[in-house]
Amino acid sequence: MARGRITDHWSCYFMFSLAGSPKVLEAYTEYTFLPGLTVRMGQFKTMYTFENPLSPTVVELVNCYSQAVSYLAGIDSSDPLYSSSGGRDLGIMLYGTVFDGLLDYHLALMNGQGINRKDGNRQKDIVGSLKLNPAEWLAVGGSFIRGRGCAVGESAVNPAIHVGQSYTRNRWAVGTLLKFRYVDVRTEYLRGCDASIHSEGAYATAAVHVLPHVDLIASYDYLNRDCDRDLKQTNYVGGLQWWFYPKCRLQVQYTRRVPRTSDASNLVQAQVQVRF
């Protein structure tokens, strides 16, 4: 990652991944016209849901983002129609914080095809989010994507859509953030529509600060890829994380995965994060 400040109002940012197939993740420039108005242009995180804009270095789960966010925001390859884009896209965005920190807003016009990929149609996506901060311990908000995708793969959930075909790709989400002395909670409900297929999901993730630098992690997370056929999977997560140095942590977690159409399974994970 590299960030450059050209003037007091003008900056640029670049992020490159060496994992797997090396690729550019983010590359953008932005200019602040007013304290509550900044314009960003380039490739960057789509501001859909609370979770997608978060860095994996601060998300509580080893698996990182919830099933619904990963699927509907296009973070991983769980939606073959959109493929894996890290929740990012190419576009231009207006954003800022106004009314003395009471309201955060984002409004963007995005390519709709994910990262490092030529647009497959002439339509663009409109992405927006609002977050109201009435108190230090409370935030509520919502976000949406409205547009048309161009399929890059075949999906068993939506077999009527073929590679290269354009289709309606809409999403919305609402949620709340709670931050107290001993516990932080993040929760959202999400809906999506791909052509005639409607999907939904929800998650609630809590970090309980049981000791200095030690958190108890608990999460409930479900995704239904097709509400008509009830293709639902629910994940229950419990674990611990220890911040042994600023930005560095050890995580151990257990996940019980319960799909509706197959047998349940268990997953135990451990991860060490070193950030500098």
Describe this structure in words.
There is one protein chain. This protein has 276 residues and is an all-beta fold. The protein has one domain (2-273): Porin. Helices cover 2% and strands 59% of the residues. The protein has 1 helix and 16 strands. It has a 16-stranded antiparallel beta sheet that branches. The longest helix has 6 residues, at 67-72. The termini are close together. The model has no long low-confidence stretch (mean pLDDT 96).
Poorly predicted runs: none
Largest sheet: 16 strands, antiparallel
What would you report as the Rg, rounded to the nearest angstrom?
19 Å
The first-level CATH class is given as Mainly Beta
At the fold tier of CATH, the topology name is Porin
Key attributes of the depicted protein:
single chain; 276 residues; mainly beta; Porin; 16-stranded antiparallel sheet; 1 helix; 16 strands; 2% helix
TL;DR of this structure?
This protein has 276 residues and is mainly β. It is built from one helix and 16 strands.
SSE blueprint:
Blueprint: E1 2-5, E2 10-17, E3 23-34, E4 37-45, H1 67-72, E5 88-98, E6 103-110, E7 125-135, E8 138-146, E9 148-150, E10 166-179, E11 183-194, E12 197-211, E13 214-224, E14 232-245, E15 248-259, E16 265-273
Antiparallel strand pairs: 1-2, 2-3, 3-4, 4-5, 5-6, 6-7, 7-8, 8-10, 9-10, 10-11, 11-12, 12-13, 13-14, 14-15, 15-16
